[in-house]
Structure prediction request, 272 residues.
Amino acid sequence: MRKLPVHPKSAAMVASIGAGAAMHPDFGSGTWEGAPIGIPVTTVPAGQKKVTVSFEYADESDRGPYPIPANAKIEGGPQADGDRHVIAFDKTACKVYELFSAYPQGGGWRAGSGAVFDLRSNKLRPAGWTSADASGLSIFAGLVRYEEVAAGRIDHAIRITVPKTRTGYTWPATHSASSATDANLPQLGQRLRLKASVSTGSMPRQARIVADAMKRYGVVVADHGSAWYISGAPDDRWDNDALRALKSLTGSDFEVVDTGGLVVSRTSGAVR
Prediction:
């Protein structure tokens, strides 16, 4: 990632997102407006009962059934009116089951869309398909989780939102959610990295580990939302004061990279 060339449209894309806008860690401990801060993950045991999920966008969703319990954690809380992502992580099977706009329904769930990801596989979703995220990627795979930071290393790119994208998508994304054609806008799937020249050594440990991952693996544009919001899972062990150090970073600290040299196959997330 550190050796990838800078994209020729990097400066224009960063400007379109907001070169002067501050990064925002959209996760932490405690609550905000009564709900946990971040996108929660519900870990389910092996053999968790699978239930039926009905989908608004059934033609681009994995049918299931899904091992999502009735008390699964919902982004924003049970009364939320936002994205309402639900993620069930089956550690034994090494799979995640993800829903967008999820609501309990009878003994199961209804959702806008849903996807199942085998974390041992590099297979991408079919071209043109969404997931529980606009990009067609796994949300779980891009979350900052406390366990990673506690271990001292995040070994993957981090999910990020931007206000606007252009039509089409950049590998490894599989889905477009825009009709805009302005070439100065990023696409879903676009990869950015924190510039090597940005000093992170004085940041508190939790923030420094996140920032270092953004240098090593970068961030991936995964959905529309506020500029430079990076996603993570809520956890009472986060130090919100430490995470706020990430707000010292601005758009101008990032550069868009050309990931074309990494691609082995357009149907696979494996890299050269």
